[in-house]
Design goal:
Beta Polymerase, domain 2, 20% helix, 3 helices, elongated, alpha/beta
Length: 173
């Protein structure tokens, strides 16, 4: 019998209660939120529970929501896959904007190592307990995190760019 989203929701909610919320079927992927303090417990449960069997971490990434309230300005998103039933789920965990940190899942999925390093490198999210949390793509000397939405998309001070070449004139900019 194929694994149904209602079964996933029921098992997760029975085990973790109100710390998991926002269950939603978004197109072809089942999504829910988990409070950041229990993320490792939830992911370990999803991996080891005999009927759920989410044994593969497909992706882990960060998102910056600068307009959200302070305790929801960052999110870490986990995509898990159950190969047996070909079922995918997405888990979001929101973090504080002043000190974005969450426990590492490298002890559950080894492939999370580089994904967490990349998320740290671009968003500045600290993964507590990560074995080697340092920049992976940017220079070590960088003091900013380039994927944060703190900077304008274009540099207004550039003089080497002529808007006419991009189909823009001062009247429609």
């Amino acid at each position: 019998m194929a694994l149904e989203t209602t079964e996933i929701q029921q098992k997760v909610y029975e085990t973790f209660g109100s710390k998991v919320l926002g269950f939603n079927q978004d197109k072809d992927i089942f999504t829910f939120e988990v409070e950041s303090d229990i993320i490792t417990a939830v992911i370990l449960y999803l991996k080891n529970e005999p009927t759920l069997r989410f044994h593969f971490l497909t992706d882990l990434c960060g998102i910056h929501y600068p307009d959200n309230e302070e305790n929801r300005q960052f999110a870490v998103v986990y995509h898990l896959h159950n190969w047996y039933d070909n079922k995918r789920i997405r888990i979001k965990s929101f973090l504080n904007g002043l000190n974005p940190e969450i426990k590492t899942v490298t002890n559950i999925f080894l492939c999370a190592n580089w994904m967490e390093r990349e998320t740290y490198d671009f968003f500045g999210i600290n993964f507590i307990g990560h074995p080697q949390l340092k920049r992976i793509l940017n220079m070590d000397e960088m003091t900013s995190f380039p994927m944060r939405k703190e900077f304008p998309l274009e540099d207004s001070g550039r003089t080497d760019k002529d808007d006419r070449y991009f189909g823009r004139t001062p009247s429609n900019c």
